[in-house]
Amino acid sequence: MTNIAQMMQKAQKFKQKMQEMQDRVKEMDIPGAAGGGLVSCVVTGSYELKSIKIDPSLVKPEETDVLEDLIVAAVNDARAQAERIMTGETQKLMAEMGLPPNMELPF
Length: 107
Fold this sequence. Notes:
The structure is a single chain. The protein is α+β, with helices and mostly antiparallel strands and about 110 residues long. The protein is about 55% helix and about 15% strand. It is built from two helices and three strands. It starts with a helix and ends in an 11-residue tail after the last helix.
């Protein structure tokens, strides 16, 4: 019975640490870029677009389709980086708690 109580305590502690880590990552500003930095943006750890910067050399009416593609690519790059950070932080926390890195979490 002691093992079950210890496991429950460990699970509760993990859940609390997981929530703290998720809250911390959600507050991060994560950059993304495309076109060699001609288009850049910042998203939060919860994937909210905060800002976008466009190099003035791209602002040509006849090339709006290229600009649109670069904006999409920059935002997707930032989102992917946010996901990598969240995954990395989750794996780090699981390792600290002695849990297998591919364990399915119920929360």
